[in-house]
Amino acid sequence: MSQSQTARGALLWHIGIWALFALVIAVLPYIFTSSSSISMMSQMGVFIIFALSYNMLLGEAGMLSFGHAVYFGLGGFFTLHAIRAVNDGVWSFPLELMPLVGGAGGLAFGIIFGSISTRRAGVTFAMITLGIGSMVESSANMFTDFFGGESGISGNRVTDVTLFGFSYGPSVEVYYLIGAWTVIAAVAMYLLTKTPLGRISNAVRDNPERAQFVGYNTTIARFIQFSLSGFFAGIAGGLFAIMFEIMTAPNVGLVQSGAVLLMTFIGGVGVFFGPIIGAVLVTYMHTALSGFSEGWILYFGLLFVFMVMYAPGGIAGVLCVHAAPWRAGHLWRLLPGYLLALVPALLAIAGLVAVVEMGYQLSLAYDPSSPIDLFYMEVNATSLLSWLVALLVLAVGIAGVLGAARVVRARWAEVNRSMQASGAKT
Amino acid sequence: MSDALRLAGVHKRFGETPIIRGVDLAVAPGERHAIIGPNGAGKSTLFNLISGRYTPSEGEIALHGKRISGLAPHQINRRGLSRSFQITNLFQNMTVFENLRCSLLWAHGYKYSFWHLVGRQAALNEAAEQWLERLGLTARRDVLASLLTYAEQRTLEIGTTIAGGADVILLDEPTAGMGLAERDHTMAMISEVTRDKTLLMVEHDMGVVFELADRISVLVYGQIIASDTPEAIRANAAVQEAYLGEAH
Ligand SMILES: Nc1ncnc2c1ncn2[C@@H]1O[C@H](COP(=O)(O)OP(=O)(O)OP(=O)(O)O)[C@@H](O)[C@H]1O
Ligand SMILES: [Mg+2]
């Protein structure tokens, strides 16, 4: 009796969380109304699906792929060709369901390439995906009918064949189409983790040998998981194609594959919602930073290196570490240390940004001595004094962070001790 | 009636080094058979050969009269043979309950299904809960396998091996490293959960072996030097000299 009651409680809790997710997506355009925000949030939806599909490999099944954009990009190309066919009057298929064309393309190529790559695990698998990724990217130059050569393939998403009577011309209508697919795809991928295939993927990730000795062929488990992941990547690619109405060769390429790896990792591979955080954050960083700094890739790279070294569980991992103290009511005891670290951390970041921006100014600007705007100040990159100040701020910031880290660690030790003492469950 | 397990002329070499040097062994259905022998004799290697982790260099292994040598571990498992490991080999990042449920999935016919939700499969979950109870791990249901005590991990190792419903069970030193009380408890549990099954077990503790086994084989340097009832083994002069003498 109580068992089924807790089961019903868990079910309600899950439905509630996903309803909230859908609600947030539905409400956002009323808060952030500018067309640039709508466009950024649409991209976030696309990359949430893409990153979640990537985590079906990396997080769920322990497969490190360097070529996941193949399925994303091909899905996009297939979708765009399908949209063009509808516009040419040779096919009729509602735009709302067009991402399924991308999904089918991703699935088909997931099956084809997966049947090769998933025969091996670990480093060999990673190498094969890298090879397939560069092969597909370079073949874009050969099959120009499909990939459109240098200029890519473009189309017009307004097809007049729709289910719900929207034209999908206005970007906010596309936003809601993407939002609906984001909810559907995220829920589907979440449920997949709860199926026998999902459980066995985890088993194969943790201990492939033991998985064999409980009756499972690890190659087949990886293969099916890989193919399904290609399906969802293809859906993301289809939405990308609908949004931008153009697909080019780099969309299937290694840079795009690297980007989804980075966003998934930064968000956190160990928890289902991790890649959602990563997709949102990285898309935001991309949009916000690339606007005013040429160095955004550098900042992004530094963030990634920092995460790999100090928070390999990603942002979601950092959040989860705090779940136990939160439940035990000890979270507030950690706060002073964090606040203490915050000030020097901001200083260090400011110093770093100043150094990077001045470096770019020196090497890239037409006139290096022209002043640059930094933190509401005019800074001259050719003056020795600006460099000394920037480096000093950076050094003080780092020293401060190191000092504060000691306080944070001591606080954590205290909290752990009192949690153990109060017999908080392991 | 065919033997549950039969090994004929099995050899295993790693490179040039012969480790298993011609083993013949027959285990009858329902028999409890112990394998004893000094360290490095090749007992674990023999288990690895039977369970498909390694393939024999020579010879043949048959399960219920059908050849299994050369098959992959998962194929052998599906034919009804399951093994535990001398060094605990669990799904460390899963809870105790999920470890057991994973080992039940294939046996319950779910294969690679992505259209069932495991949480809603009443029979599957009930079976996993029952195994928790039989193993005495109910209180540790939601603890990660990596956080269990050593004895609990060994217990789960055995449970994971047997839960899938195989009728031929291979246990590699199931009680190694346990204290006396834990060992007695574990042996009682093993003898309960393997009732009506064929059991092949490596064990160092002579008390345990002589109490549980119907028959004992002594493996020394890759060869079985004697295979008989516990009483006969105890009386066997060659065994005394080769093994029991130095062990005691
Ligand atoms: N994969 C391998 N490659 C090379 N040599 C191996 C391999 N596996 C086992 N051996 C060697 O085979 C011999 C027998 O090892 P095995 O583990 O089967 O012994 P054992 O009887 O189980 O010993 P123990 O009582 O210590 O568990 C050892 O000398 C070991 O080094
Ligand atoms: Mg051994």
UniProtKB/TrEMBL annotation, chain A:
Keywords linked to the UniProt accession: Cell membrane, Membrane, Transmembrane, Transmembrane helix
GO CC term, one of those recorded: plasma membrane
Molecular function via GO: branched-chain amino acid transmembrane transporter activity
Residues annotated as transmembrane: 12-32, 38-57, 98-117, 174-192, 223-247, 259-284, 296-323, 335-356, 384-408
Membrane topology: Multi-pass membrane protein
Main location: membrane
Entry-linked Pfam families: BPD_transp_2
InterPro entries linked to this entry: ABC_transp_permease, LivM-like
Name this protein carries in UniProt: Branched amino acid related transport system bifunctional protein Membrane
From TrEMBL, chain B:
Keywords carried by this UniProt record: ATP-binding, Nucleotide-binding, Transport
Cross-referenced InterPro entries: AAA+_ATPase, ABC_AA/LPS_Transport, ABC_transporter-like_ATP-bd, BCA_ABC_TP_C, P-loop_NTPase
Domain ABC transporter: residue ranges: 5-246
Molecular-function GO terms, alphabetical: ATP binding; ATP hydrolysis activity
Entries under Gene3D superfamilies matching the protein: P-loop containing nucleotide triphosphate hydrolases
SMART domains xrefs: AAA
SUPFAM superfamilies recorded: P-loop containing nucleoside triphosphate hydrolases
GO terms for cellular component: plasma membrane
Cross-referenced Pfam families: ABC_tran, BCA_ABC_TP_C
PANTHER family listed in its UniProt record: CONSERVED COMPONENT OF ABC TRANSPORTER FOR NATURAL AMINO ACIDS (PTHR45772:SF9), CONSERVED COMPONENT OF ABC TRANSPORTER FOR NATURAL AMINO ACIDS-RELATED (PTHR45772)
Protein name in the entry: Branched amino acid related transport system bifunctional protein Membrane
Species assigned in the record: Salinisphaera shabanensis E1L3A
